[in-house]
Amino acid sequence: MVELFEARATEKGQIVIPAELRKRFGIKKGTRIKVSEKDDQIILSPLTPEVIRAKLRKLRGSVKGGQSLTKELEAERARDKDKEERSVESWQRLR
């Protein structure tokens, strides 16, 4: 079920998140809020330590079993180095 809450914007564009929602989502003074846009909606997502930890766990899970990110970076750098060396060689042949 979707609950509807109403907030009014101030002259500076500030809004007050209803107390019930602040409590439910652990929003306290200084809590960072991600603001995004989708279609015709503004989406506010609290960045509490719990939310951040959950997102990190999810990201770690998506990386498990895959190739090491370090190895991917090393392979990418090796490809870039090879490409650059070929480019230098072709410039030297033109001289």
What features would you highlight for this structure?
alpha+beta, 2 domains, two-stranded antiparallel ribbon, 2 strands, 13% strand
Radius of gyration: 24 Å
What average pLDDT do the residues reach? 85
Tally of separate domains: 2
The helix content is: 40-55%
Distance between the termini: 72 Å
Count of individual beta strands: 2
Secondary-structure element order, as H and E? HEEHH
Computed structural class: alpha+beta
**Tally of helical segments:** 3
Give the strand line-up of the largest sheet: 1-2
Biggest sheet details:
2 strands, antiparallel
Shape: elongated
Uncertain regions: pLDDT < 50 for 5+ in a row? none
Quote the beta fraction: 5-15%
Lay out the secondary structure:
Elements: H1 19-25, E1 33-38, E2 41-46, H2 49-63, H3 69-94
Antiparallel strand pairs: 1-2
